[in-house]
Amino acid sequence: MLISDMPAEYSRSDEWFDSEGVRCAVRVYRPTAAETDTPAVVMAHGFGTPRALRLYSYADAFARAGYTVLVFDYRHFGDSEGEPRQLLDVAKQQQDYRNAIEYARSLDGVDSRRIVGWGTSFAGGHVLTLAGTGQNFAAVIAQVPHVSGPAAVLATGLRNSLRVLPSAVIDQARALLKLSPRYINSVGRPGDVAVMTTPDAMDARDRLFAASGLKDGDYPETVAARILLRIGLYSPGRTAGAITCPTLVQIMSNDAVTPASVAQKPAAKIPHVTVRFHRGGHFDPYVEPLFPIVIEEQLSFLKTAVPLAP
Questions:
Q1: Dihedrals φ, ψ of 106, to 5°?
Q2: Which of 12, 35, 181, 274 is the most exposed place for a label (fewest CB within 10 A)?
Q3: For the chain, how big is the Rg over CA atoms in Å?
Q4: 164-179: average pLDDT
Q5: Distance (Å, rounded) from C-alpha 141 to C-alpha 22?
Q6: Which one-letter DSSP state was computed for residue 250?
Q7: Which of 213, 254, 202, 225 shows the shortest CA–CA distance to 50?
Q8: Which pTM was predicted?
Q9: Which residues of 9-48 are buried (b: 16+ CB within 10 A; e: fewer)?
Q10: Which helix (H) or strand (E) holds 168?
Q11: Could you give the angle at the alpha carbon of 269 between the alpha carbons of 268 and 274, nearest 5°?
Q12: Model confidence over 74-89: pLDDT tens digits?
């Protein structure tokens, strides 16, 4: 029987943890049948995306398998606090992740020595960075991870880079003047002024919203444009060789956001790595028909890397 077919045996609660004086929203899944302290999977989403966009489906599968799961929103996004809204700051997001880990370790029923870092896309880069710079994870799962800033910029194409550059410069100037942000759409169609404008982006966005039971307007789909001046400087793959824990990296063959050829190189430097390739684009792992394959692969990895019984 697949984990996704098993009856639910967990409780769920919406909680908060403090991150440098800002309250971050975290949903905690606790397996009810656990007889000993369990490993905890700490999860966050990608570029400018709230956890409600399909992460709860992953959390459900991990909780059914017997793991404690924490799914959080970064400050400034989703259900977390923080002003201005939709402000993406790499260092702050990494600190939010560290604080989420410490919150997980503080919970009754959690084995504080066995924390799994789970990240997808931009957050996949975060967990790789944290693991490569000393964070004591028991294991890492990086789904379609951002690994190279320059490669990400190249993947967007020269024309799109030129389209978004004025918004990024204006927003940076407004930040220096302590004015409200200039926002830009996170997803658009080719030719739009938006961050991700690959041919599949908008249709994939619609499928993600439908699969999550969300509709237009439930969450903003913008980001403060200043981050576009910094993406090129953020390359999590640089510290991949220093990752010591078991790591699963899942790569999509036709990924136009984090290209497969780019993701393979740092993944190969991780000493204890499992790399899995799938046919499809950047947004396909979250929805049918690939989602059940991807999640069963992650569960199989956890069963070996971080079994419920130590």
A1: -85, -10
A2: 35
A3: 18
A4: 97
A5: 27
A6: E
A7: 213
A8: 0.96
A9: ebeeeeeebebeebebbbbbbbbeebeebbbbbbbbbbbb
A10: helix 158-176
A11: 50
A12: 999 999 999 999 999 9
Contact 244, 133 (CB under 8 A): no
Q: How would you classify residue 145: left for phi > 0, otherwise alpha for psi between -120 and 50, otherwise beta?
A: beta
- Between CA 110 and CA 108 the distance in angstroms is 6
Question: What average pLDDT does the segment 159-186 reach?
Answer: 96
Token pair listed for 84: 């201005």
Dist CA 103 CA 209 (whole Å): 29
Torsion (CA) 241, 242, 245, 249 in degrees, nearest 10: -40
Three-state secondary-structure class, residue 121: coil
Enter the tokens of residue 100.
């989420």
The C-alpha angle 166, 170, 81, rounded to 5 degrees, equals: 120
Which two three-digit tokens encode residue 30?
């606790």
At position 152, the amino acid (one-letter code) is A
Which residues touch 38 (CB under 8 Å, ≥6 apart)? 31, 66, 67, 68, 109, 110, 111, 308
- Bridging pattern class, strands 68-72 and 22-31: antiparallel
- Residues 6 or more apart from 134 whose CB is under 8 A from it? none
Q: Give tens-digit pLDDT for 18-51.
A: 999 999 999 999 999 888 999 999 999 999 999 9
